[in-house]
Design brief:
Number of domains: 1
Shape: globular
Number of strands: 10
Bound molecules: zinc ion
Order of helices and strands: EEEHEEEEEEE
CATH class: Mainly Beta
Strand order of the largest sheet: 6-7-8-9-4-3-10
Distance between the termini: 17 Å
Mean pLDDT: 95
Radius of gyration: 14 Å
Helix content: under 10%
Largest sheet: 7 strands, mixed
Length: 131
């Protein structure tokens, strides 16, 4: 069982601030083509949380990226904020948090789709698809 923490964060412009409880410290990076486009080239580094509170929710945009999921972003600055597995499982992009160093990379998924221009350091499992 991975250790869980509470964390705070915000989008780039600050129109949306975020408080989460029960964020998993051990995270995975996703190299799938949807995360690549969503994050502008970087893999998706994200953590599942027990609950999330948004301040400035009127600035929150939601894009239905599949029949079972939405991706959330700031309508003012475009920051990618979360993947929502419907109805209520929030997987937050760790880049929005004030202290991303509290998270540890414990695996990579969809490595078959990873662009060749980068590689992530560390000795952790690398899965070609979703394990
Ligand atoms: Zn913003
Ligand atoms: Zn992905």
């Amino acid at each position: 069982m991975t250790e869980k923490i509470n964390a705070s964060g915000q989008c780039l412009c600050g129109a949306i601030s975020i408080e989460v409880t029960g964020a998993e410290r051990e995270i995975h990076a996703c190299h799938c083509s949807m995360c690549r486009r969503w994050n502008g080239g970087a893999p998706g580094f994200a953590t599942q949380v027990d609950s999330v509170t948004f301040n400035g929710e009127e600035n929150l945009g939601r894009f239905e990226s599949s029949a079972w999921a939405e991706r959330g972003f700031c309508k003012a600055c475009g920051s990618s904020l979360f993947y929502l597995l419907k109805p209520d499982t929030y997987i937050m992009n760790v880049g929005c948090f004030d202290d991303p160093d509290v998270f540890e990379l414990h695996g990579e998924i969809f490595c078959a789709d990873k662009p060749s221009m980068y590689a992530l350091a560390g000795d952790h499992p690398r899965h070609a698809q979703m394990p």
